[in-house]
């Protein structure tokens, strides 16, 4: 559509319809974002991590893209709920630890910690239903933020791991609070011991809402989500507001505290040794 035609059309419309048209045009542009794919269809906004060649590792573009998309869709009446999923075999392998050329390591990791904090805050603050469709393994921050989603559907081939201590780091994504609250003593397997948790184990301890056969997860969850999107938007939002009201500020406090500890660990000897070991193993593959 040409710029002249768009301008002519906008002049003939009432302001409310103009805003809706602009939203639709912006939505079409958002669909073409590189490392995440975003689409809106019949009230369902789907955000797909789109780095399958990197197992959907979360780089700065994904952090910023997801934050921006959640913030914009919070006030978009076309969006009833948002779905998070991954492209390829992985939901996400977590934070991308491949480092660019860095001149100021301390400033780089401070900036990294800040973006992690904003990313987690976007999950905490999102006012609409947030559904994760975990199509494969979820590691690190991709796993911890699942506990901030309202519904988690998982493939039977999915598994979960948060190798914090293996990397010389500490829990993030509010998992120091959400994991013990949801899983009880089984949270120790993830928070301290770096163990993998299968989808069925995650279902048994309440971390996952429902597990689907891998070959059918897309078709079966899509059908359920289309039904969810028919629910009244204001009722869903008010219900979530009531549920989140009692711990929202606490989660923000937890996020800030975790990020402070994370910033310290990012410049620790433990982390740099783990990072070097990781790069050595990767170079041998």
Question: What does this 3D model show about the protein?
Answer:
The chain is an alpha/beta fold and 285 residues long. The model is unreliable at 1-10 and 16-30 (pLDDT under 50). Helix 3 (60-73) runs parallel beside helix 4 (105-125) and helix 4 (105-125) runs antiparallel to helix 11. Strand 1 and strand 2 (44-49) form a beta hairpin. It has helices spanning 3-12, 15-30, 60-73, 105-125, 141-144, 175-183, 187-191, 199-204, 217-228, 233-245, 248-266, 269-284, and strands spanning 36-41, 44-49, 81-86, 129-134, 138-139, 151-155, 159-161, 197-198, 210-212.
Observed structural traits:
alpha/beta, 6-stranded mixed sheet, disordered N terminus, single chain, 285 residues, 3-stranded mixed sheet, 12 helices, 51% helix
Q: If you compute it from the alpha carbons, what radius of gyration comes out, rounded to the nearest whole angstrom?
A: 20 Å
Give the biggest sheet.
6 strands, mixed
Distance between the termini: 48 Å
- The coarse silhouette is globular
SSE string, helices as H and strands as E: HHEEHEHEEHEEHHEHEHHHH
Number of distinct helices: 12
Query: Helicity level, as a percent range?
Result: 40-55%
- Which runs of at least 5 residues are low in confidence (pLDDT < 50)? 1-10, 16-30
Average pLDDT number? 89
Count the E strands: 9
User: How do the strands line up in the largest sheet?
Assistant: 1-2-3-4-6-9
Structural class: alpha/beta
How large a portion of the residues is in β-strands, by DSSP E?
A: 5-15%
Assembly classification: single chain
Give the topology, please:
Elements (H helix, E strand, L loop, with lengths): L2 H10 L2 H16 L5 E6 L2 E6 L10 H14 L7 E6 L18 H21 L3 E6 L3 E2 L1 H4 L6 E5 L3 E3 L13 H9 L3 H5 L5 E2 H6 L5 E3 L4 H12 L4 H13 L2 H19 L2 H16 L1
Parallel strand pairs: 2-3, 3-4, 4-6, 5-7, 6-9
Antiparallel strand pairs: 1-2, 7-8
């Amino acid at each position: 559509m040409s710029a002249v035609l768009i301008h002519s059309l906008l002049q003939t419309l009432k302001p409310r319809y103009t805003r809706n048209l602009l939203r639709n045009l912006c939505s079409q542009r958002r669909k073409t974002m590189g490392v995440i794919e975003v689409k809106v269809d019949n009230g369902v906004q789907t955000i797909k991590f789109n780095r399958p060649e990197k197992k959907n590792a979360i780089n700065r573009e994904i952090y910023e893209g997801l934050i921006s998309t959640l913030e914009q869709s919070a006030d978009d009446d076309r969006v009833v709920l948002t779905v998070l999923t991954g492209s390829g075999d992985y939901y996400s392998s977590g934070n991308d630890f491949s480092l660019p050329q860095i001149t100021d390591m301390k400033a780089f990791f401070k900036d990294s910690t800040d973006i992690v904090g904003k990313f987690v805050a976007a999950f905490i603050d999102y006012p609409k239903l947030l559904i994760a469709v975990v199509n494969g393994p979820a590691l690190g921050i991709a796993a911890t933020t699942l506990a901030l989603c309202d519904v988690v559907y998982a493939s039977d081939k999915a598994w979960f791991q948060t190798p914090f201590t293996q990397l010389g780091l500490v829990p993030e994504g509010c998992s120091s609070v959400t994991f013990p609250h949801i899983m009880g003593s089984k949270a120790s397997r993830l928070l301290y011991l770096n163990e993998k948790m299968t989808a069925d184990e995650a279902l048994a301890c309440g971390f996952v809402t429902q597990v689907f056969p891998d070959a059918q997860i897309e078709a079966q969850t899509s059908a359920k989500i289309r039904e969810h999107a028919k629910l009244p938007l204001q009722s869903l939002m008010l219900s979530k507001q009531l549920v989140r009201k009692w711990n929202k500020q606490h989660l923000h406090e937890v996020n800030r505290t975790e990020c402070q500890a994370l910033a310290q660990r990012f410049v620790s000897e433990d982390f740099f040794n783990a990072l070097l070991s990781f790069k050595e193993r990767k170079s041998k593959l």
